[in-house]
Amino acid sequence: MTIENIVTERLTLIPVTFEITTSLLEGKYDVIQKMGFLTDEMWPTSDTKDILPSIDSALEHSEPSGFEFWMVVKRDSNMIIGDVGFHGKPNAEGEVEVGFGFVEKERGKGFGFESLKGIMQWLETQDSVSVIKADCLISNQASIRLLEKAGMNEVYRNEEYIFWRRQLRCI
User: Fold this and answer.
1) Hey, how many other C-beta atoms are within 10 angstroms of the C-beta on 90?
2) What is the pTM of this model?
């Protein structure tokens, strides 16, 4: 099954493939450039680089499921400015955890909300998903505002993190 790009007002979200993750792990951008996209010197972020090995091994023998990460591309410049994605496929209860990250100079411009809204609309079409979860640092006011604006509800917090949840449907 081929996963289609998600197109929003200003962005295109592109599901990552094995070929893309492998090239990023090697520090190469030729695969992305052949696709017509530009990369900011700050992308992939350190958080994205940390998850690349697990994405690479998950995709080695399959096509993207959509539950990996998606590159976030500004449509007016074809510049990759960040990524949004998941910590794996939905669990047995239909829960999936979402995360996002953007290059610093593109933060605070609404791209985070726009990409999160786009990926959440995609999730609403996935019958296997009933709950979207997220977490963020208590000190990360921008992520807190973004998650609240996206309709996420705080369900718990500890000394370091706030945990969020949004019910889509009952499975």
Assistant:
1) 20
2) 0.92
